[in-house]
Specification:
Blueprint: E1 4-8, H1 12-24, E2 28-32, H2 35-44, E3 49-53, H3 61-70, E4 77-81, H4 86-95, E5 99-102, H5 107-124, E6 128-131, E7 134-137, E8 142-145, E9 148-150, H6 154-165, E10 171-172, H7 173-181, H8 191-203, E11 212-215, E12 219-222
Parallel strand pairs: 1-2, 1-3, 3-4, 4-5
Antiparallel strand pairs: 6-7, 7-8, 8-9, 10-12, 11-12
Helix pairs in contact: 2-3, 6-7, 6-8
């Protein structure tokens, strides 16, 4: 699934340009025009990368980056600015930005930096997700329940990773379809239920207790 990118800029011309360039490359895009709106967007749907303007109304981009880092969030941040002094760039990087791009910028350079940050983030994001006796290695994409290895299809992997990152949290049908299949998914209306069934069968293949529970009329939750 292509990465999800959050654009934070109060200039609609810049936002529109970035949205078109990124959408053309196949990325899903969300936008925010203020620092507080950006923080809200991150909570609603954590992006894979943030393109963040420094000069924003209310909370500026430096404060947004600082708050995210203080909260332990490691989302890659590409900072946009019209300021070109070394001191400004150093301040941005020390606040938590991963890279810096001057305005005006060439779309080709923007895309090169976006791809480099996403690639580096994927390489660094090798982790083992665990809940109860289930674990999932995001580097090898291998799952285990206890000592038993579970072979997963790509969609089953994405589904299990989503549940393991949000244990005990009720995930609505809309959230699951959005995160696993994408916002513009137009497939069969019961595809999610089918894949939850596949995943349950694999997790419970040797009679283990159920972990993925149905919340009637809402969605699913991973809990013991």
């Amino acid at each position: 699934m292509k990465a999800h990118i959050l654009i934070v800029d109060d200039d609609p011309r810049i936002t529109d340009l970035l949205r078109r360039v990124l959408a053309y490359e196949g990325y899903s895009v969300n936008t925010a025009a203020t620092g507080q709106e950006a923080l809200n967007r991150v909570l609603e749907r954590p992006p894979d990368l943030i393109i963040l303007d420094i000069m924003l109304p209310g909370l500026n981009g430096l404060e947004v980056a600082q708050r995210l880092r203080e909260a332990g969030d490691s989302i890659p941040i590409l900072m946009l600015t019209a300021r070109d002094t070394v001191a400004d760039r150093v301040q941005g990087l020390e606040t938590g930005a991963d890279d810096y791009l001057m305005k005006p910028f060439a779309p080709e350079e923007l895309m090169a930096r976006v791809k480099a940050l996403l690639r580096r983030s994927r390489e660094e994001r090798h982790e083992v997700l665990r809940y109860a006796d289930v674990e999932l290695d995001t580097g090898t994409r291998v799952a285990h329940r206890g000592a038993r290895e579970i072979e997963l299809s790509p969609t089953e992997y994405e589904l299990l990773a989503l549940f393991l990152r949000r244990p005990r949290q009720v995930l609505t049908r809309e959230i699951i379809l959005d995160r696993v299949w994408g916002m513009d998914f137009e497939g069969s209306s019961n595809v999610m239920e089918v894949y939850v069934g596949y995943l349950r069968s694999k997790l419970e293949a040797e009679g283990e207790p159920r972990l993925i529970h149905t919340v009637r009329g809402v969605g699913y939750v991973l809990k013991e």
